[in-house]
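Let us practice reading a record.
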Amino acid sequence: MKSWCDIVLKPVFAVVSAFVLVCACATPLGLKSAQMQAPPLPDSFGVSASLIEVTLNLGLVLVAIVVLAWLFKRFQGMDQPAAGQLKVTASLPLGPKERIIVIEVGDEQILVGASSAGISTLHVLNAPLRVVSEEQESFRDKLVRSLKGAQT
C-alpha cells in the first residue's frame, strides 16, 4: 500500500523539478541572441543589470532550497502509523555505523543490534529497563560548562 507521501509529494516534486529543468535549459526557438537580450537598465543604480539578475536568481534558488528542506523535514516520518506503538527507550553507539538499541513494543522491551549489515534481535528483556528522565541540557549550558572547565 502506498503512503500519502508517495501519492502526493513525489509527483509534486517531480513536476517542480521538471519545470525548473525546462526553464533552466530551454531557449526560445527562432529568436536570435540579440532579440533575447533584455534592454539595458539605466546606470543610475550604479550596478549592472546582469548583477541584479544574478542576485535575484540566486535569492530565488536559496528560497527554493529552504522551502524544500522545510517540507522534507515537516513531512518526514508521516507514513509511519505504528510510531505510537514503538518507542526507542535507549541507544548506545558502538561505532560509526553500529549501535545497540532498546525498543519498547507495547509492554515488552527488545534489545536489538543495528549495523550496516542489518538489524538483529539480541535479547528480549524479561524485566523492563528503568527510564531515567533527565532533562536534556541546552547547547548554551554545555558550552558554558565546557568553557569554565577549559579556564581552570
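A brief commentary: The chain has two domains: 4-75, 82-125.
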